[in-house]
Amino acid sequence: MEKQIINCSSLSSKEINSLLRVPRTSNVALTGILGQRFIGSGMKDIDVEISGTPGNALGAYLDGGKISVKGNAQDAVGDTMNEGNIIIHGSVGDALGYSMRGGKIYVKENSGYRTGVHIKEYADKKPLIVIGGKTGSFLGEYLAGGTIVVLGLGIDGTVAGNFTGTGMHGGVIYLRTDVLPPNLPKQVSVFDAGKDDIFYLESLLSEYFALFNLKPEEILSSHFFVLRPNARNPYKQLYVLN
Amino acid sequence: MPVNFIYPSFEIVRNDTRCTVCGVCVAQCSNGVHRFNDSRSRILSDESQCVNCHRCVATCPERALKIVRSDDCFRDNFNWSQKTIKELYLQAGSGGVLLSSMGNPEEYPTYFDRILLNASQVTNPSIDPLREPMETRVFLGGKPDKIERNPNGSLIINTPVYLPLKIPVMFSAMSYGSISYNAHEALAKASKELGIYYNTGEGGLYKDFYEYGKNTIVQVASGRFGVQTEYFSNAAAIEIKIGQGAKPGIGGHLPGEKVKAAISETRMIPEGTDAISPAPHHDIYSIEDLRQLVFSIKEAVDYKKPVIVKVAAVHNVAAIASGIARSGADIIAIDGYRGGTGAAPTRIRDNVGIPIEPALSSVDMRLREEGIRNRVSLVVAGSVRNSADLVKAIALGADAVYIGTAALLAMGCHLCRSCHSGKCNWGIATQNDKLVSRLHAETAKERLVNLITAWKRELQEMMGGMGINSVEALKGNRLMLRGIGMTEKELEILGIMHAGE
């Protein structure tokens, strides 16, 4: 498809989003992006390629379409995202995919703290976050649904930080490593991935592998941990009606 | 164990000479208080299940029932009250956290009741609202720093987005889940008719209510339930909920068993799963982060809708409000410690937060001192019980108020404070279809419209008495207020003089 190139070096976030809201038939390539926030916020049916480093809240409330970044992104990418794809050909900052409900976020390298907090799923919406490298602490906190995969490519040792899965009450986290993250909370049950898991990952990750030219057999032959909630209601406190 | 036995708080007095054993009370009580005896010749009552909601009293065709407070008592003790002892037994017997509903009922001072209003006498005569126009419309949102004109003298319209209200009252956030479908429908319809707004709370927006979008405020809370672009597009404004007066600083937890089909659809989570709202938004740890969320929403709605930030009234609320005003929010909502709830831990509800009156006054004064009062509107909540509270709140600096409990009462709530049981006999705080059908949405709407219309008349009358003909002129007009029986410190915080001064 034809691509429309827009040089954004002198444009504000607001101006960029106004341009993106114009209905068009071609893909859009934004060049010269340097820290502009909220790109694509609340939009659907967009197909945007970004060169440079977009600012925080890239693709917040995204409701469809695709945003691809040729470089790194910052905090709160895909916040409360509902649908669509976000692809980062580099690393991202903190709070990636906070509370997302649908769509996919693919990160080639690493992500910061609080990745995939409170992801949930609903009906046919099953959010997926794949991190090629490693993540910081609080990965998948309050996880209520969906899938997070951390591949740890080129990483020795653990691939996630402290308190992974605190308050988890749904969903699943796959970690490609031999070392469990430190301070796993009691809401998390850990399993070693079996054949079924690997089979599932093979189809789940096929798009990711193709996107970044990775060899599935090399990656999937390594050991994976599977983290699932160990109780359905982790916060079910005993209340007494007063 | 005998130690766990607590004598019921209420006694049901049945007048046997009136009772015809018709069984209405048996059918009406969802708590199972009333039952027939074996031969169906009498009706027996189990007071231990009674919550004193008065449903049986109100529906008994023979007026054969009344509910009285039990006079059973422990030995008098000023320090260890009946309530304190009973709560302690409850906890010792269960190991549970005490859970309550509705606003803080404890005996703290209500400042509204210690404030009196002014009226004109002889000079600056009062205005007759029957004859003179009396403006009750307000516009919520930021106001421009200055008036600008074109070279030809015409006005440049540079007002930021705003919410127009025909009367400065809105219905507080109450989620579909905490209250019933019919209750939501009544609030939505009444808002439309009155030219005001209702608030979906954090439970999402049910598709049937999209048609009331122009009168709907949708909430974005830490759980982000139901938040999607359609949610924004079917709303007049978006409210970021940081906290609420009944439970400042803590999160929420809707247990899986309450997440049934329709609730699951609006919250956008699978049926039967827990809906957890973490205590903080984990993407907001600072005013800068809040600003980011405010603007991500503004971008998502293309700056066409105002953003409200709601916080609970806590000790340093003035500084927090200053931060919120600088975050780009258009409206700040402040909820005082009397604010209602469908369920909150008793200790938190009754001990955390501060009253709305000093919170409002200190926020208004702080924003004025900093020269940023025009950037935001202030909406206050946390027990505005009548039109006098409304007038006093406006004179203390509010642009409008949110009412929750008052609206529920208008629909038929009898304030039995048992919402958390889900068995509301009045069809309001329940998802049981049979109970919900008891609340007729159209009647409830009428009652809401009646209430707000009556308040509007009273508001106009009180304003007229003061010689003021618009809410805008009453706003922050503390000269119209006098305190009674307050300390100098209290008067200083409220920014008002004592009666007689």
Describe how the helices and strands are arranged.
The complex is a heterodimer of chains A (242) and B (501).
Chain A (H helix, E strand, L loop, with lengths): L2 E5 L5 H9 L5 E8 L11 E8 L9 E8 L12 E6 L15 E4 L20 E4 L12 E7 L19 E7 L11 E5 L2 H10 L1 H6 L4 H5 L3 E6 L9 E3 L1
Chain B lengths: L9 E5 L9 H5 L5 E3 L6 E3 L9 H5 L5 E5 L12 H13 L2 E4 L14 E3 L20 E3 L22 E3 L3 E3 L9 H14 L3 E2 L16 E5 L8 H5 L3 E5 L10 E3 L6 H7 L7 E3 L9 H14 L6 E6 L4 H10 L4 E5 L8 E2 H6 L4 H14 L7 E5 L5 H9 L4 E4 L1 H7 L21 H4 L4 H26 L4 H4 L6 E3 L4 H7 L2 E2 L3
Helix pairs in contact in B: 4-14, 8-10, 11-14
Write a concise synopsis of the structure shown.
Chain A is α/β, with parallel strands linked by helices and 242 residues long. Chain A has helices at 13-21, 195-204, 206-211, 216-220; strands at 3-7, 27-34, 46-53, 63-70, 83-88, 104-107, 128-131, 144-150, 170-176, 188-192, 224-229, 239-241. Chain A is built from four helices and twelve strands; from the N terminus they run E-H-E-E-E-E-E-E-E-E-E-H-H-H-E-E.
Query: What distance lies between the first and last C-alpha atoms of chain A, to the nearest angstrom?
Result: 64 Å
Number of strands of chain B: 21
Percent range for β-strand residues of chain B: 15-25%
CATH fold group of the largest domain in chain B: TIM Barrel
Radius of gyration from the alpha-carbon trace of chain B, in angstroms: 24 Å
> How many strands, which pairing sense, and closed or not: the largest β-sheet of chain A?
11 strands, mixed
Give the largest chain-chain interface (CB within 8 Å). A-B, 49 and 47 residues
Tell me what the CATH architecture of chain A is. 3 Solenoid
Q: What is the CATH C level class of the largest domain in chain B, in words?
A: Alpha Beta
Give the overall form of chain A: globular
Oligomer: heterodimer
Helix content of chain A: 10-25%
* CATH C-level class of chain A: Mainly Beta
Q: How many domains would you count in the coordinates of chain A?
A: 1
Give me the side-by-side strand order of the main sheet of chain B: 9-19-18-16-15-12-11-10
| DSSP summary, beta strand count of chain A | 12
Taking the alpha carbons of the first and last residues of chain B, their distance comes to 61 Å
The name of the CATH topology of chain A is Pectate Lyase C-like
Secondary structure class of chain B reads alpha/beta
Secondary-structure-derived class of chain A: alpha/beta
